[in-house]
């Protein structure tokens, strides 16, 4: 015998005998045909559930690409669904990178974009072809000494 359970023949898996509940006609409500036809006699909406809150239809959120360069993350916003629809091109992302990082045109042409180790080479290709999705992280590689921050930029 187990020392954890009483030895009176009870099992922890048995159910205890219970009396059936008393159900009367007052426990029910019946719907008449008049109530079905007359909406003013119907049950108020908030009697059964919370009143509906009507939400305004929100405009779709912008597509966002997270551009990383030297441990700095730049969020680049584009029109909604432009990535998934194939409308956002690699050259568009490069232009946005140049704006976000304040790069001169000559340096912006040399920026390399990488997504999961893949170089986004073709400037006229949609970024979707490289597997880029909304909220993806791209790495922008700016050639050394040409990120616009070097003091010798003006000299030749």
Kindly describe this structure.
This protein has a domain at 63-146: Ubiquitin-like (UB roll), CATH 3.10.20. A five-stranded mixed β-sheet has the order 2-1-5-3-4, with helices on one face. It is elongated. It is 13% helix and 16% strand. The chain is α+β, with helices and mostly antiparallel strands. It has helices spanning 33-37, 90-101, 105-108; strands at residues 63-69, 72-78, 112-115, 118-119, 137-141. Strand 1 (63-69) and strand 2 form a beta hairpin.
Count of alpha and pi helical runs: 3
The CATH architecture of the domain at 63-146 comes to: Roll
Q: Write down the secondary-structure element order.
A: HEEHHEEE
User: Average pLDDT across residues?
Assistant: 79
The biggest sheet amounts to: 5 strands, mixed
Poorly predicted parts: 150-156
Structural class: alpha+beta
Overall outline: elongated
**Gap between N and C termini, in Å?**
96 Å
Q: Largest beta sheet: what is the strand line-up?
A: 2-1-5-3-4
Secondary structure layout plus pairing:
Blueprint: H1 33-37, E1 63-69, E2 72-78, H2 90-101, H3 105-108, E3 112-115, E4 118-119, E5 137-141
Parallel strand pairs: 1-5
Antiparallel strand pairs: 1-2, 3-4, 3-5
């Amino acid at each position: 015998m187990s020392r954890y359970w009483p030895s009176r023949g009870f099992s922890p898996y048995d159910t205890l005998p219970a009396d059936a509940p008393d159900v009367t006609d007052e426990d029910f409500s019946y719907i008449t045909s008049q109530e079905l036809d007359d909406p003013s006699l119907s049950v108020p909406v908030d009697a059964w559930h919370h009143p509906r809150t009507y939400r305004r239809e929100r405009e779709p959120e912008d597509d966002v690409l997270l551009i990383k360069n030297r441990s700095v993350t730049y969020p680049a916003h584009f029109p909604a669904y432009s990535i998934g629809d194939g409308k956002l091109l690699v050259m568009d992302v490069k232009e946005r990178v140049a704006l976000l990082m304040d790069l001169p045109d000559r340096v912006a042409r040399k920026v390399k974009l990488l997504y999961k180790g893949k170089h986004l080479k073709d400037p006229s290709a949609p970024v979707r072809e490289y597997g880029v999705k909304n909220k993806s992280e791209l790495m922008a590689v700016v050639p050394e000494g040409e990120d616009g921050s070097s003091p010798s930029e003006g000299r030749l």
